[in-house]
């Protein structure tokens, strides 16, 4: 994967050296290499201005996790058959605070995927301005089609090993793909049983009755749209009256649709792995929630129940013309060809609700076309920010109203946007949110690493 030409001339030799080092050390981890490249590609100006970053090998240290835990997860299914999965926790960087990042249960999970997610989490968490480091974890376990009892047994086995590495001042996991409220409950219950402590701040995404935060379910989608609104406002525009396309139909997509509609936009399309639906009148949010959150059915059901909507099987949702695109499904879903289609159709802004959903080539197409582009580490940081707000409530043994929690989220997202904007302007690239997010997050972590010595 080459460095982009972009608007910046040349790259600091320390950047190229660090990336080549990562490729040599992690040869079979393309997602991790891609995540590292995306960040390092922006950092030459910072290294040129601050020689101490190169002198102290900050890049090499930042790209090597502080700790990588891989473990066996044995469990029995309802028929008594034994299964063995693999568990992971990559504790990447704790310079700013305890490791913080979700757990993903999905067959695609491997060490490279967890390292890519954990590396992204370092900068995402730094951008929030909060005292949290970066980490990620999960398993190649597939929860689809499994009974509640099977998932409970798996979660208990997983936490039996993982608990020894966790703590509210050490490492605080949360949910991610395949890990929702049910799984968080089973995981916390087993942690409490093993630790003999009610340590509510050790995991986030908990139920509202026992330490969870309001707005946590909505936070990633809401935050992405709030960031997009701020980005548009700074260029003299608004979401009001805009035509929006959202990929996916999971948690992030659903609450992106909800907040975009609240701000006056018309969301005309969303998707799942089977295809996409177009509803020119605007997505019926209640119907979408019923199909996806209650029935867990396919998006094709939406078109069957909504007379004016149409379903395109196996199609590309980015073929639907829009003013704002919110990729909210999975990594590398928006490629260069799709980006060119969006540009031809007049897209104004793209904001990543998922983690790294836009390929490097697509990002370059969008940026060269002058499209406002918000990288996931900035735009989808609302989820982890609200997790920290949950930890704050747990520490005070209190609970906030939905309105208070949402106001706190809005303030955090404004701060993230403004940090990105300020860093981009400071380095002579106004409006470049990729450079701004990467540099702002990097400078905060790098400064802490320098202050704390060679550890």
Explain what you see.
By secondary structure, the chain is α/β, with parallel strands linked by helices. It has 18 helices and twelve strands. It has helices at 13-25, 30-40, 44-49, 51-55, 58-62, 111-127, 148-162, 181-195, 219-234, 251-262, 285-294, 300-305, 336-344, 360-368, 376-379, 382-396, 402-426, 433-451, and strands spanning 67-76, 82-93, 99-105, 133-139, 171-174, 243-246, 266-272, 275-278, 310-313, 324-326, 349-351, 372-374. The strands form two sheets. It has a seven-stranded mixed beta sheet with strand order 9-8-7-6-10-11-12, sandwiched between helices. The chain has a five-stranded mixed beta sheet with strand order 1-2-4-3-5. The longest helix is centred in the last third of the chain and has 25 residues, at 402-426. Residues 5-9 have low confidence and may be disordered.
């Amino acid at each position: 994967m080459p460095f982009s030409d972009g608007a910046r001339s040349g790259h600091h030799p320390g950047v190229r050296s660090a990336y080549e080092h990562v490729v040599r050390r992690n040869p079979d981890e393309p997602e991790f290499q891609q995540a590292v490249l995306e960040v390092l590609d922006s950092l030459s100006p910072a290294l040129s201005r601050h020689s101490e970053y190169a002198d102290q090998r900050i890049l090499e240290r930042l790209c090597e996790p502080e700790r990588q835990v891989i473990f066996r997860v044995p469990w029995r299914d309802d028929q008594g058959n034994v299964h063995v999965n693999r568990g992971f926790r990559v504790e990447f960087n704790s310079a700013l605070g305890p490791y913080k990042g979700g757990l993903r249960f999905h067959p695609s999970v491997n060490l490279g995927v967890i390292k890519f997610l954990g590396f992204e989490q370092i900068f995402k968490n730094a951008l929030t301005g909060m005292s949290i480091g970066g980490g990620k974890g999960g398993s190649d376990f597939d929860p689809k089609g499994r009974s509640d009892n099977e998932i409970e047994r798996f979660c208990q086995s997983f936490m039996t090993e993982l608990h020894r590495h966790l703590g509210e001042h050490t490492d605080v996991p949360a949910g991610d793909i395949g890990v929702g409220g049910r799984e968080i409950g089973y995981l916390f219950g087993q942690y409490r049983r093993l630790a003999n402590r009610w340590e509510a701040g050790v995991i986030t995404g908990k139920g509202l009755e026992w330490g969870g935060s309001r707005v946590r379910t909505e936070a990633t989608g809401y935050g992405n749209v709030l960031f997009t609104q701020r980005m548009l406002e700074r260029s003299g525009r608004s979401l009001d009256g805009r035509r929006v396309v959202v990929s996916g139909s999971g948690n992030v997509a659903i609450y992106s649709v909800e907040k975009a509609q609240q701000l006056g936009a018309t969301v005309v399309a969303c998707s799942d792995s089977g295809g996409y639906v177009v509803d020119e009148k605007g997505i019926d949010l209640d119907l979408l929630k019923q199909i996806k959150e209650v029935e867990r059915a396919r998006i094709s059901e939406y078109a069957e129940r909504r007379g004016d909507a149409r379903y395109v099987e196996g199609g590309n949702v980015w073929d639907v013309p829009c003013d704002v695109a919110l990729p909210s499904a999975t990594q590398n879903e928006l490629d260069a060809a799709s980006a060119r289609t969006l540009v031809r159709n007049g897209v104004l802004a793209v904001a990543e609700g998922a983690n790294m959903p836009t390929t490097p080539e697509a990002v370059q197409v969008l940026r060269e076309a002058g499209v406002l582009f918000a990288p996931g580490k900035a735009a989808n940081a609302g989820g982890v920010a609200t997790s920290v707000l949950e930890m704050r409530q747990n520490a005070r043994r209190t609970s906030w109203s939905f309105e208070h929690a949402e106001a706190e989220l809005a303030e955090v997202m404004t701060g993230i946007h403004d940090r990105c904007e300020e860093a981009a302007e400071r380095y002579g690239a106004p409006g470049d949110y990729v450079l701004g997010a990467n540099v702002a997050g990097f400078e905060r972590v790098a400064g802490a690493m320098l202050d704390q010595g060679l550890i």
